[in-house]
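Structure ticket #2291
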Amino acid sequence: MVNRVQTRRMTDLEYEAEIARLTAERDELACSVERLESALAEAAHAATEDEESFPDAVVERLVAGENPIRVFREHRGLSIRKLAEAAGLSAGYLSDIETGKRTGTTATIKALAEVLAVDLDMLV
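Resolution: structure written out below.
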């Protein structure tokens, strides 16, 4: 015995209604995709806007254990005198911090971080 599936032809009205339903569903899905893509783009932009990437040479120097204040100062193209002046420090004091002779107070390191435009935790 063969099992036959009976099919029924759609009427023109049923066909048009199904096309309209599927078109509306497609448009709704397209809008959802656009909203998701927009949200992803905004999130990616916000992430890159808040975070600066550094050249490999800077990262390598930091990983090698060089003083981060010196590394970022040189990366920013500042002399010891210019950075010290901008942070309200003496050049000698900054030099001592960079060479490890002195540690610098939290307020001092915070001032240096602000001038160097890096997060405080990048310098400690």
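Closing remark: Residues 10-51 form one domain.
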